[in-house]
Amino acid sequence: MIARSIIAITALIALAPLPLAAQSENTDPAHAAADAREIPQTKALNNQASSVVTQAQTANAVAQAQDEQNQAEYAADMAAYEAAMRQHRRDVLATDATFIRQQNAYAMAMRDWRAQVAMCKKGYQSACNLPTPNPMDYM
Fold first, then answer.
1. DSSP H or E run through 94
2. Alpha carbons 116 and 125: distance in angstroms, whole number
3. CA 113, CA 82: separation in Å to the nearest integer?
4. How many C-beta atoms surround the C-beta of residue 136 within 10 A?
């Protein structure tokens, strides 16, 4: 959009008629009469070209403002996404740490239970009467 507007402005400037002072260098009566007929048309064309350039500049300013707003929204979205990803990673690490603690607690409880069973099988009655180890006691 911006590039198209810039091209349009450049084309209009290239096609814009010269200022009136540059057009009326000849002072003979024929040129003066022709200038008198063409001056209103030249002024109208200059005004039209100026109006088109002003419209293009306005359109460019609007497009640039919209682009800046879009860029600001994109930056805000990216910041929010990155913050969410950091929080997610913290949550995953916390969950992983909890899972690892739970696995270790279960493994220690199983180790103690196996030792308890082995002692019971060897005839130690007190080991047979002990409660089964609770993994929560190892957390």
1. helix 29-121
2. 10
3. 46
4. 10
The CA distances from residue 71 to 20, 57, 66, 79, in Å, are 44, 21, 9, 12
Helix axis angle for 2-15 and 29-121, nearest 10°, is: 170
**Tell me, what amino acid is at 115?**
A
What is this structure's pTM?
0.43
One-letter amino acid of 12: L
The DSSP call for residue 122 is T
DSSP state for residue 123 in the 8-state scheme: T
Taking only the tens place, the pLDDT of each residue in 9-31 is: 665 565 555 555 555 466 777 77
Q: Measured over all CA atoms, what is the biggest interatomic distance in the chain, rounded to whole angstroms?
A: 137
- CB of 106 closer than 8 Å to CB of 137: no
35 HSE (CA, 13 A, CB side): 15
